[in-house]
Amino acid sequence: MLTWRPGPCLLLDDFVIERSENLARKVTPPARHPVPVVTGAGPDGMGDCCFQPYFTVIRDPATARFRIWYGVPESEIQSHLATMESLDGVAWIRPHRVLADPARIQFGCAIVDRGPGFPRPEERFAYGFFGEHRGRGGLQIAVSPDGLAWKGLDVLLPCTHDITWLGWDPLRRRYIAFVSMIEDGWRRTPYQSVSPDLEHWREPWRAVKPERGEEGKTEFYCMAGAVARGDLLVALVKVLRDDLNAEPGASAKDLGDTQRKFAGIGYTVLAWTRDGETWERDIEPFLDRGEAPGAWDRAMAWGDCQLVVGDETFVYYGGYTRGHKVARFTERQIGLARMPRDRYAARVAGTSLGRLRTRAGVLEAAGLAFNARIRGTMHARIVDAAGNPVEGFDWADGEPIRGDGVALNAAWRKPLAALRGKVVALELTLVDAELWAIEWSGPAGAAR
């Protein structure tokens, strides 16, 4: 049975929904900043010198400053780690600083900040990247006290392609890695592994694969940016179509790729898991390519990092202008897209009355709010496991819910805390409204 604990309950899938009527699920893309926030090299060789769609942005809990780590080139197949800081996560304090390599870095800039209370302060930061170690390629690990001076560890998670990502799963308190494997002789495919200590890793398993409705030469530039939201991990999947061109009617040669039949396009879809190992995903883009011909992110828009900032979610992504292998030192840049927190996919009601009933669960919360945009009206009531309205929590006992916010409060004639420990379900009616998440709160525990 479910437990209704404090924290967000995202409606990305139907897991908590027992039934719904006249509601459509809609992926809601974030609003993108019009220009890159981190640039490639300029014509004069200046600029931020980004050349790969891999990076990490972290907000320091003590100073509230943002820090980004990203790759700058030594060559087409070798990177160095660069860093900058920002007061707002948009405008970066330049010039960037190139850090000393802990080992030869091919690609990858996945950083985990284990916090000021980490028992080995000299290893507070962990860094995952692809390189060769003892004659094999795979995910390597380095550690640092400050995110600036890095020391490599004698660790390798082998993989057959050069894209990797490292993160932390706070729900299961373990590290998570995505590594790229080549399948069928050509298809880049994300695999997952987990570790309790960054040293001992499970044998990787396939995380996602092409789904029905995805045509052509569909492959993946791995997965990244997994964040915990309620009981879910939500990650970003980079979809690659190396059988298409960014501009209709243009050839690969027209777009600057003289070596291949197609210059390639890419976009980002959402993936999520409830058990930390089995992933569901959309095939509809969450972050699509830029719409305007010649836009800086016209060919690729590949999400790599998510960061919750107050009532917003920042999604940082790598954008390419003309194609997958075109002008890699100048046209691969980092963009920012923003959305109200947790607004990945909504349940949408039109002018006809929509209804939603959740599964029953044990209530361990004392408050309830909704992440919603309600132009019409929404009403809520509490029912028991048999579907009978609970006295004091029926339709007539609460006020209509209206507005646009990530935490629109619900209240009834009686306090919700009176139902703590009881098995209850939630029923909603919606007209002209979008609902992204149910947010439980209260003294039963900290919000997740």
Strand content: over 45%
What do we call the CATH topology of the largest domain?
A: Tachylectin-2, Chain A
Major pleated sheet: 10 strands, mixed
* Average residue pLDDT: 96
Gist?
The protein is mostly beta strands.
Question: How does the SSE layout of this entry go?
Answer:
Blueprint: E1 2-4, E2 7-10, E3 17-21, E4 24-27, E5 31-32, E6 55-59, E7 66-75, E8 78-86, E9 92-98, E10 107-113, E11 125-133, E12 136-144, E13 151-158, E14 164-169, E15 174-183, E16 187-195, E17 205-206, E18 218-229, E19 232-241, E20 265-273, E21 279-281, E22 300-309, E23 312-320, E24 332-340, E25 345-349, E26 354-358, E27 361-363, E28 367-384, E29 401-409, E30 423-441
Parallel strand pairs: 1-27
Antiparallel strand pairs: 2-30, 3-26, 4-25, 5-24, 6-7, 7-8, 8-9, 10-11, 11-12, 12-13, 14-15, 15-16, 16-17, 18-19, 19-20, 20-21, 22-23, 23-24, 25-30, 26-30, 27-30, 28-29, 28-30
Q: What does this protein structure show overall?
A:
Helix content is 0%, strand content 51%. With 448 residues, the protein is mostly beta strands. It folds into 2 domains: 2-27 and 346-441, Galactose-binding domain-like (Jelly Rolls); 31-342, Tachylectin-2, Chain A, CATH 2.115.10. The strands form 6 sheets. Strands 1, 2, 3, 4, 25, 26, 27, 28, 29 and 30 form a 10-stranded mixed beta sheet that branches. A 4-stranded antiparallel beta sheet has the order 5-24-23-22, with no helix packed on it. A hairpin with a 2-residue loop joins strand 22 (300-309) and strand 23. The radius of gyration is 23 Å and the shape is globular. The two termini are 19 Å apart.
